[in-house]
Amino acid sequence: MGDERTAVDGDGSAGDSRREELVRAALEVIAERGFADTRIADVAARAGTSPALVIYYFETKDNLLTEAVRLAEDLWYDCGYRRMAAVSGAAARLEEMICTTFMPPADVDFPDLGMLWVDLWARSLRHAEVARVRQEFDARWRTVIAEVVVEGQATGEFSPVDPGEFATAFSALLDGLAVQIALDDPAVDPETACRISMGFAAATLGFRWVPPELAGTAAGSAFTES
Amino acid sequence: MGDERTAVDGDGSAGDSRREELVRAALEVIAERGFADTRIADVAARAGTSPALVIYYFETKDNLLTEAVRLAEDLWYDCGYRRMAAVSGAAARLEEMICTTFMPPADVDFPDLGMLWVDLWARSLRHAEVARVRQEFDARWRTVIAEVVVEGQATGEFSPVDPGEFATAFSALLDGLAVQIALDDPAVDPETACRISMGFAAATLGFRWVPPELAGTAAGSAFTES
Amino acid sequence: MGDERTAVDGDGSAGDSRREELVRAALEVIAERGFADTRIADVAARAGTSPALVIYYFETKDNLLTEAVRLAEDLWYDCGYRRMAAVSGAAARLEEMICTTFMPPADVDFPDLGMLWVDLWARSLRHAEVARVRQEFDARWRTVIAEVVVEGQATGEFSPVDPGEFATAFSALLDGLAVQIALDDPAVDPETACRISMGFAAATLGFRWVPPELAGTAAGSAFTES
Amino acid sequence: MGDERTAVDGDGSAGDSRREELVRAALEVIAERGFADTRIADVAARAGTSPALVIYYFETKDNLLTEAVRLAEDLWYDCGYRRMAAVSGAAARLEEMICTTFMPPADVDFPDLGMLWVDLWARSLRHAEVARVRQEFDARWRTVIAEVVVEGQATGEFSPVDPGEFATAFSALLDGLAVQIALDDPAVDPETACRISMGFAAATLGFRWVPPELAGTAAGSAFTES
DNA sequence: TATGAATGAGAGTTCATTCAT
DNA sequence: GATGAATGAACTCTCATTCAT
Questions:
Q1: From the CB of residue D141, how many other CB atoms can be counted at a distance below 10 Å?
Q2: Which of A67, A120, B37, C156 has the fewest CB atoms nearer than 10 Å to its CB?
Q3: Helix (H/G/I), strand (E/B), else coil: C226
Q4: Do residues A175 and B175 make contact, with C-beta atoms less than 8 angstroms apart?
Q5: Distance from first CA to last CA of chain A, Å, rounded?
Q6: CB A144: neighbour CB atoms within 10 A?
Q7: What integer is the mean pLDDT of D118-136?
Q8: Which H or E run includes D183?
Q9: Chains meeting B at 3+ CB pairs closer than 8 A?
């Protein structure tokens, strides 16, 4: 007692909040500098402590980075899921999911998620634990997609396509487009990415969808001929 | 014979062949250990020389890695393009392209391409030159796809979809699926990836395609309902 | 006791004393091997630590060397000033100053100052910070000389020569002679150097001075004819 | 034959002129970068050849640098001596010598001599051969001074001071002032240096000399009171 | 819990020098 | 005589990690 930091920490134990603080700091640094160039000293500096303390909590740099990965995925999933759940109608949910992917909310307090994913994939190539975490994340995500599909099929919005296969295809498409955006490819901007993925969903699931810029005209998706 | 590049290398200066040898060694090491963990000493060891020689030729580790990226993309493009060109019929060409992507020939003498791409994307996030090279590569690739589409439309095989948009969507889908394969995700094996992407192409371009495992039955793609 | 710096060091933080220890070690190594051949490893070895610690304290080899330069000049200045202040009479002070220059006390615990100055000049040719430090040192030194001149003029010991100009000329002469001694030129030994510079001062400032070896004879300086 | 470079070399043997070319190139590089930072590759580049050739001619970097030192001193001595010899009258010769020291001719084709001397002194601290060469140079130079003094004494221009002692003192003064100029000390510009040294000579040798800026007034040197 | 001090194990890069041609 | 290729031996600096306090 007498240590205001501990008092301020609030709901959890002092140690836990310090840990979280460090993980969050790590995530910020990773987002900025990439996994390869993130040093323990950077994280410590950002959290306002010493490198030794970071090691004290995580024992290894590796552990710290993996924890940061977990945090990133939790934050992302929660954010996406919440947004999607707030919308009604299967097609509208898909659209919300797409928007979250390509136009993440700026008010979220962790930066530049897009770059992080690609970097994270690269890391998971050689780090088993990261690979596991990432795979779970993708599985969760595909499950969410499949559930929306099932829901849409139940209401008759969607045609009877295999939900698992669609989820796989759809999330792959989103990932592929997200990569291009993260890499700043001039051929793919967020709007294009939304249009393409929504067009794919509409064509595959058999619901009617008119791209925003064509709304009011007779034309449909680039992929659905009249 | 018939491969003029090899011929040129043969009578070229010794220095050039040494360079290529080193780039190739670098590519192998990168494929095995990833960019982040590739050391000059590794490359030198693999090429049977000293680290100093590597610097002698490339001045900088960075230069070496970037050259390796170039080589990877050239090898890959050449291989894919040649295989595709050997087939006739637009749909068949697309299929060949897909196969090359997910089931690259084992006889090609550079290893584990899939992991390399993801790693390369990550690198291009913070390395301008790599980003440039990568972007050119993607542009080339999309052009090839678009050309096949145009060709298929000319023969009436494909329906009149926007070729550029299709190319963007298609290559994003391939990339997304390739990532899952590279990351060894149990939900996506090469066969599934082929089926999904060919299904997408068939549905979008409006040609008839029956997945191999259903050939002989009445069923079509998972995405094309009867 | 009576030396407050030592007292301060005693109760100062361990880090500070370590720093000083390293700077002192650096100075010793520099004096022995010269700036060009001084390696971080040498300094670390002399201080009984690891090269990494040296970097930990100074960040850069360059910083370390510059600090060593500062130390050298402080030690030298303090030593010279103290000796000079202990003597009374303007001419006697000048003589003490000269002696300090050409016959530095052997009991001072930093070695071979003469070689260091020349080496330091060479370094200051291309190292701005060293140049600055050196220049300040020279300015301080000239000020001391000029003050002695003013003092001597006040008492009537010296004739009304411009103190600044004399200081410039006098310190240049001392430097030039010191170089010859540092370079071990057979034409200039410390005694000669003392005689020459004292002769110059006597002739210029118009006080009577008899070279030691001629004391008791009628002759004066080589420069002052009867 | 058939090699035009050999033909162009002209008067000496081909090998010798190549050598000289390299020494000259070395001198230029040394003047620019200092001894410590002069690399064989720099010299080779400046001479338009390969490092290997430099080694071929000099065997060691050290040899090359020492040769460059010799060249520097020869060029300098020749230039100074020639200029001095062109003037008549002992005092005028001294003045010419002083001017050469502080205001070297810009048309001489080797650059920035001032910095070189200090650098050379530093090198001679630890390089016996350079030390020897330098010492000979200084001895030669003092002899020249002493000769002028003797000459002046013969004509009655100068008073009967010990010529050797004067030479030692005078060259030390010039060196000391030259150092300040080389180090760009704001307290000593070439004009001041000339004035001081000429004032010293006039006062010591007992000839009348009026500093340029006071010419026409009644005042004399700062050191010679009325 | 927290940290400053300390270090070992590299990593990249430099550069004089060697040598086959 | 001339050089491109090659290398060994350093050297500086980095950084995760340890440890005494």
A1: 22
A2: C156
A3: coil
A4: yes
A5: 73
A6: 19
A7: 96
A8: none
A9: A
Pick the residue from chain B with its C-alpha nearest to A193. Answer: B169
Q: Which two tokens stand for residue C149?
A: 């001149």
Contact (CB, 8 A) for C43 and C29? yes
- Indicate contact of C with A: 3+ CB pairs under 8 A: no
Enumerate residues 6+ apart whose C-beta is below 8 A from A215: none
Distance from CA of C144 to the nearest CA of D (A): 15
Under 8 Å between Cβ of D111 and D32: yes
Tokens representing D75 are 């060029």
The three-state DSSP-derived secondary structure of A82-133 is HHHHCCCCHHHHHHHHHHHHHCCCCCCCCCCHHHHHHHHHHHHCCCHHHHHH
Q: Cβ contact (<8 Å) for D168 and C196?
A: yes
C-alpha to C-alpha distance for C121 and C69, rounded to whole angstroms: 10
Handedness of CA B5, B11, B16, B18 (dihedral sign): positive
Query: Residue B41: helix, strand or coil by DSSP?
Result: helix
User: How confident is the model at residue A215, as a pLDDT?
Assistant: 61
- Closest by CA position to D177, among listed D109, D118, D126, D90: D118
Q: Please report the domains of chain C, with CATH numbers, ordered by start residue.
A: 1-59 (1.10.10.60), 68-224 (1.10.357.10)
Q: Does D162 touch chain C (CB under 8 A)?
A: yes
Mean pLDDT computed over every residue of chain D = 88
Judge whether A91 and A152 are in contact, CB under 8 Å: yes
Kindly tell me the sign of the dihedral angle through the C-alpha atoms of B6, B8, B14, B16: negative
10-residue block means of pLDDT along chain B (226 residues)? 37 69 96 96 97 98 97 90 92 94 74 85 96 96 96 96 96 97 94 95 93 60 48
Q: Is the pLDDT of residue D213 over 90?
A: no
Distance CA A169, CA B201 (A): 12
When CB atoms are compared, the residue of A172, A192, A206 closest to B168 is: A192
Instruction: Judge whether A81 and A144 are in contact, CB under 8 Å.
Output: yes
User: Cα(B35)–Cα(A118) distance, rounded to whole angstroms?
Assistant: 14
Exposed/middle/buried for residue C189 (C-beta within 10 Å: 0-12, 13-18, 19+): middle
Alpha carbon distance B14, B24 (integer Å): 15
> Over the range C136-171, which residues count as b (16 or more CB within 10 Å of their CB) and which as e?
ebbeebbebbbebbeebbeeebbeebebebbbbbbb
Look at phi and psi of residue C49 and say left if phi exceeds 0, alpha if psi is from -120 to 50, else beta: beta
Q: How many CA atoms lie within 13 A of B153 on its CB side?
A: 14
Task: Note the pLDDT of residue C174.
Answer: 97
User: Rounded to whole angstroms, how far apart are CA atoms C139 and C133?
Assistant: 10
Q: What is the dihedral of CA C116, C117, C122, C127, to 10 degrees?
A: 90
Residue D192 makes CB contacts below 8 A (sequence gap 6+) with: C165, C168
Residue A114: Cβ within 10 Å count = 20
> Angle formed by the axes of helices D128-155 and D90-102, to 10°?
150
Residue of C175, C224, C225 to mutate, interface with D, max D Cβ within 10 Å? C175
Long-range contacts of D196-199 (CB under 8 A, 24+ apart): D196/C165, D196/C168, D196/C169, D196/C172, D197/D98, D197/D101, D197/D170, D197/D173, D198/D94, D198/D95, D198/D98, D199/C169, D199/D223, D199/D224
Contact A226, A220 (CB under 8 A): yes
At position A56, the amino acid (one-letter code) is Y
- For D221, the 3-state DSSP assignment is coil
Q: Does C66 touch chain D (CB under 8 A)?
A: no
Statement: residue C116 has pLDDT above 60: yes
pLDDT, residue C147, reads 96
Q: How far apart are CA D4 and CA C219, in angstroms?
A: 69
What's the rounded Cα separation, in Å, for the pair A81 and A93? 10
